[in-house]
Specification:
This protein is an all-alpha fold. Helix content is 84%, strand content 0%. The chain has four helices and no strands.
């Protein structure tokens, strides 16, 4: 591979990472805005959009980002490979929790008064899952940064 080809790949990957991080910011904004909505302001639509955004974000990470980050780490730093694998396992665990939340709320039509109490707790737990996920992703990206000259 020529240096020009390598630089082109790096730029393409940087663009993927940038788009993914913008998507993460949009997801975080949706998450923060949801509890602020009044019941009459389209909460269910906002909840469905949040679920869709979480699943899309998670999928993009798994299918477009993490593997490339891992490959970069493998190619440039044998000392960080084990930590990267551990982080990916933890990220996968958060994906499972996101999928469970999506299964529970992604297509629900209405929430009863009883459901609202449960939902508030589940939303709080989801916030913790997202925080954990973003921290692991940031640490994975920091491992990549550590391999750069």
């Amino acid at each position: 591979m020529t240096q020009e080809q390598s630089q082109g790949l790096d730029e393409a990957f940087d663009a993927i990472i940038d788009a993914w991080l913008i998507e993460r910011q949009a997801l975080l904004t949706q998450f923060v805005e949801l509890p602020q909505l009044k019941v009459t302001e389209g909460v269910m639509e906002a909840l469905h959009r949040l679920c869709e955004a979480m699943v899309d974000y998670s999928s993009r990470g798994h299918f477009n980002v993490y593997e490339q980050l891992l490959q970069h780490i493998i190619q440039h730093s044998s000392e960080h490979q084990a930590r990267a694998q551990t982080l990916l396992g933890k990220i996968h665990d958060t994906t499972d929790k996101i999928v469970v939340f999506d299964d529970e709320y992604g297509s629900v039509e209405n929430l009863s008064i009883q459901d609202i109490g449960h939902f508030s707790n589940r939303l709080s737990c989801l916030g913790e899952v997202l925080t954990e996920r973003f921290n692991h992703e940031d640490e994975l990206m920091a491992l990549v940064q550590a391999t750069l000259p």
